[in-house]
Amino acid sequence: MSVVRQVPNPAGHAMPSSPVQRLPREAYISSEWFERERRNLFGRTWTWAGLAGDLPEPGDYTTVAAGDYALVVLRDEGGALRAFHNLCRHRGTELLEGTGRLDAAHITCPYHRWTYGLDGALRAVPLRAKCFPGLDTAHYSLLPAALGEFKGMAFVHPDPGADFSEWRADLESVAWPHRFERMRVGPEITYEMRCNWKVFFENAIDGYHLAYLHDRSLGGPRADRNVQDVHGRHLVWYSTETGRKTCMPLAVAKAMGHQSGNAANEVWSGEYGGVFMLFPSTIVTASPSELTVSRLVGVTADVSRLSTRVWQHDDGGWKWLRRADRPEDLPGYDPESGVLRLSHLEQHPRETGDFQWEDVWVCEKMQRSLHSPAYRIGQLAAGAGAEAPLEIFQRNVLDFVGGRDTQS
Ligand code: FES
Ligand SMILES: [Fe+2]
């Protein structure tokens, strides 16, 4: 498989001093645009598949969608992780579902039982001599995909020739110091939001809103005391209020209820980014006690899902709001679909004290506005800690998706 066309600006874009909105309104509401994103963006970049440590044994696998592509990551008999397209080479049936461990060291298609090794080679074909005389099994291995690992996280790309180091850029030099294997992980929690995935992404890189929408939940960190740095196509958020770059302002540490006596010292000593926005769909939030990894998936132009897992150090230092052993115990849980929804929240989001609900609430409000023909962007707030990162994100999207740029 070859890349359809080269994506321009692989090194990303510089922070603009006077940011402007680049994406047109239709980018957030049109199904046609959404389909183009699935094909040209999510089908041509890296998607987080899970932790390498989630698949410790040969035969452990997980499936993941990258735009329209269905992929599977598995641990082979030699202990290496591999990625394949999750398609049988006979007539294309989906091979594996969800996450699990294979009973034996092979993958068997349920339809007509073609069987593959964990290296992807076709090993067995029922009635081969009669039904497929002359079949050269060497031509029917599973289609390979690309796999990249970063800090214990496995990423996949549908194109086996994709360049992971180009995407990773220089993130290694600024990444969080935590080790997943030394932390305890909670359950995966999924929010389903009635907004385009980019509305949520843009909210997450908008440092201007923190002081206002989240004045109660996060203690109001100001945009002129934050900064976001560009690393390739990724953005990394820091607090600068101490004069050093740290992962979190004191107000946030207090709002999140740090329990230990030297809370401030611990928080300031986190000299790494607090939020890593890995383009286009992986969000890592780091604090001295925790790592949160979220995967953002567009379901339709108007609906997205955010699936989140939290890893904690076993120090019991944090009394965080969205912690529960079971998602069912969380506010907003919809038992029919197993996801959290604003419509199932009994309180007003501003009353929850949970910034995530405040974000979901405002993103859904933005999405409703985007459907009005009168919708206009006024101006984006200048500043690398304010709204300038939105232009970078939008230019990255346009590099992949193309289409009309509002500024040209
Ligand atoms: S489609 Fe898989 S064996 Fe036929
Ligand atoms: Fe927010």
- Please outline the major beta sheet: 8 strands, antiparallel
- The dominant shape is globular
The low-pLDDT segments are none
Give the distinct bound molecules.
FE2/S2 (inorganic) cluster, fe (ii) ion
Distance between the termini: 33 Å
What's the number of helices?
Answer: 10
The number of domains: 2
Task: Report the CATH topology name of the largest domain.
Answer: Naphthalene 1,2-dioxygenase Alpha Subunit, Chain A, domain 1
Q: Specify the CATH homologous superfamily of the largest domain.
A: Naphthalene 1,2-dioxygenase Alpha Subunit, Chain A, domain 1
Give the CATH class of the largest domain. Alpha Beta
Report the count of strand segments. 20
CATH architecture of the largest domain: Alpha-Beta Complex
Provide the gyration radius in Å: 22 Å
Helix content: 10-25%
| Averaged pLDDT | 92
Succession of helices and strands:
HHEEEEEEEEHEEHEEHHEEHHEEEEEEHH
Structural class: alpha+beta
What is the percentage of strand-forming residues?
15-25%
